[in-house]
Amino acid sequence: IGPIMSNEYPPLTPKLSDFINGHERVLYVAFGGRFFTTVENNNKILQSLVEVINNNMVDGVIWALSQTSKDDFSPTLNLNDGSQVQTSSILNNKHPHIHITSFAPQFAVLNHTNTKLFFSHGGAGSTHESLFTGTPMLVLPIGGDQMGNADKLKSIGIALSLDKFALEVNDIINKMNILLNDEDVKKNVERMKYLAKINSKRKYRAADLIEYVLLRNDLNKGSDQELKEFIPADTRMGFMRGNNYDVYVTILFIILGII
């Protein structure tokens, strides 16, 4: 069962709607509400966002920068081409193609056709929404279950991961390029999107089963009778039939009879 998705999600704000509709290849960045890292890593993340725009890999970036203070960045960034940019102008939304916000309705952003890549910490909620919307992920796990989530997403071919202790701008750029252009990634994303949409419907089946068990217990108060209807058929049929050994024996006798 799962991912378990809500029936309703907050829509895009007017500002975000204008921004995302005005950019055809959007990178969405969000690391959750408890993301804390070093000033050096913050600089590398921000520089990578500028670099991928300058390299025309994406034409817009939305960064939901909820907890990280604007003081947690160096005043300037040195770009790969030797130029410098002021971080304050970017963080104060003076860059025409980077939108910094304290909150973004994540599902609405990911579900927009113009969003092409999700740069995330790899939390469970973000992972489920990425799968459901068919958005490849670049994962920077910070702690908890995020490392395991990153490994699982990589194993099914829809994500690549980074190491917070060895974060490098060029590594971020190269992995974004792979996720945006690799045909196998695109196929895997579509495959997992389809499966996620199917499996998300099973929450109704789960709710029905829970209600049935509660009803049955209410009807059979004081009884220790098992839920026989949930016992697998092979268990009820016995060892021989449950493992198809009776079929194998029959086939063996037929073969011996022919010989």
Automatic annotation (TrEMBL):
One MF term in the entry's GO annotations: UDP-glycosyltransferase activity
Gene3D superfamilies, sorted: Glycogen Phosphorylase B (3.40.50.2000)
Keywords in alphabetical order: Glycosyltransferase, Transferase
Source organism, top-level taxon: Eukaryota
Natural source organism: Rhizophagus irregularis
Keyword Transferase applies: yes
PROSITE patterns the record matches: UDPGT
Matches recorded under PANTHER family: EG:EG0003.4 PROTEIN-RELATED (PTHR48043), FI06409P-RELATED (PTHR48043:SF145)
Protein name as catalogued: UDP-Glycosyltransferase/glycogen phosphorylase
CDD domains noted in UniProt: GT1_Gtf-like
Family affiliation: Belongs to the UDP-glycosyltransferase family.
